[in-house]
Design goal:
Length: about 90
Amino acid sequence: MEVRGSRFSKSAEERQKMLRQRKEEMVQQARRRYMYNSPEDPDVDLPELEEEEEEEEEDTGPELNLTTLRRRTMAAAAERRMQSQQDPEP
């Protein structure tokens, strides 16, 4: 049985080369998505974020917007990680 037009070559070296190239392309795509979605100023400190969050709550009322919810979730996760590093279980 002969397979024609298959995605991979029969050569192991060529398959590895294609996989490495595909992996690199995926990494570059992920980097572009991260840079596009990341905040403009990465050096923003947490107190400023908290002030912005309070202002957003005043503007939008009691309902939480997605950004505020995401920030709170990330802050809670960071606090849990910091506590688990400080207090390792015996």
